[in-house]
Amino acid sequence: MAFVTRQFMRSMSSSSTASAKKIIVKHVTVIGGGLMGAGIAQVAAATGHTVVLVDQTEDILAKSKKGIEESLRKVAKKKFAENPKAGGEFVEKTLSSIVTSTDAASVVHSTDLVVEAIVENLKVKNELFKRLDKFAAEHTIFASNTSSLQITSIANATTRQDRFAGLHFFNPVPLMKLVEVIKTPMTSQKTFESLVDFSKALGKHPVSCKDTPGFIVNRLLVPYLMEAIRLYERDFQTCGDSNSGLGFSLKGDASKEDIDTAMKLGAGYPMGPFELLDYVGLDTTKFIIDGWHETDVKNPLYQPSPCLNKLVAENKSGKKTGEGFYKYK
């Protein structure tokens, strides 16, 4: 009996040690072929990972693959300036590491990591992960690239809360070095360390944060952007470009042009807040601030902006629509 007990304890100890080992991510499934998903797929494939990129239609995926190829050629032109042939080989090798699919459930059975980069809608994300949870392998880690939603709320849709975390990349993914690795109260240390190692393998610099609204960057950045809007819109009844007849003459504390110039020359920022708002997308900023406002109505940092709401309602969301706080040709 003692022998059996020792054997059992030895077996349990061995099993525990094995389960504590970090997951070495080799195969990645990226859900969402938009700008962020395509960027994540590109950097993963370019660093020796095999990738499946998933979206709803073949047309979306064809567009994503084309965008990835164009981005890779830009990278290769700079990286292999002295050796165009090697650059061409790099592009082809990277593209060959990416396959596409319209059926997420059929491709997650053998993946090490699922990274979700779809619409910022909690219900849609929950439905996706709840479905994939049934098909993914036991060891598979799930991660969301959400920039504003609570990771815990998404993880709770699955039975693998210990293998669920946030993996927040920044746009454009191939160029931005930062990745925020978000650990929920249920995320295991093994999962967290596996994602940190994966981020480093992509050539990124991971930082850690708890599951707090906006994590690190957006928690600081979004209130800053909103305060810039308030500085501009203070005492305004409407907002827009007064020079084009879309708004009033300046009654705020400062013009958007002067605010942008001040932050670039005074704080050393590469872009002013209004330039950055237009680049990120006014609709994206509105979505984040509205979500935070719902969870903490009295917080002055999370108060909505009439000016921002007006522009988004008029489909003036920034560079992607041709107009936001500024006009774009």
3D structure, described in words:
With 329 residues, this protein is α/β, with parallel strands linked by helices. The chain has 2 domains: 21-210, Rossmann fold (3-Layer(aba) Sandwich), CATH 3.40.50.720; 218-321, N-(1-d-carboxylethyl)-l-norvaline Dehydrogenase, domain 2. The chain is built from 12 helices and 8 strands. An 8-stranded mixed β-sheet has the order 3-2-1-4-5-6-7-8. Helix 2 (35-46) packs across helix 3 and helix 8 (217-233) packs across helix 10 (273-280). It starts with a helix and ends in a 16-residue tail after the last helix. The record marks 168 as: Important for catalytic activity.
| Count of helical regions | 12
As a percent range, the share of strand residues is 5-15%
- Which segments are poorly predicted (pLDDT under 50) over 5 or more consecutive residues? 1-19, 242-250
CATH top level label of the largest domain: Alpha Beta
Number of strands: 8
CATH architecture of the largest domain: 3-Layer(aba) Sandwich
Oligomer: single chain
- Spatial strand order of the main sheet: 3-2-1-4-5-6-7-8
**Count of the domains:** 2
The radius of gyration is: 23 Å
Secondary-structure element string: HEHEHHEEHEHEEHEHHHHH
Helix content: 40-55%
Described by strand count, sense and barrel closure, the largest sheet is: 8 strands, mixed
Ends apart, CA distance between termini: 82 Å
Average residue-wise pLDDT: 90
Name the CATH superfamily classification of the largest domain: NAD(P)-binding Rossmann-like Domain
Globular, elongated, flat, extended or rod-shaped: what is the shape? globular
What class would the helix/strand composition place it in? Answer: alpha/beta
EC number: 1.1.1.35
Family: Belongs to the 3-hydroxyacyl-CoA dehydrogenase family.
Binding site for NAD(+): 32-37, 55, 120, 125, 147, 171, 320
Subcellular location: Mitochondrion matrix
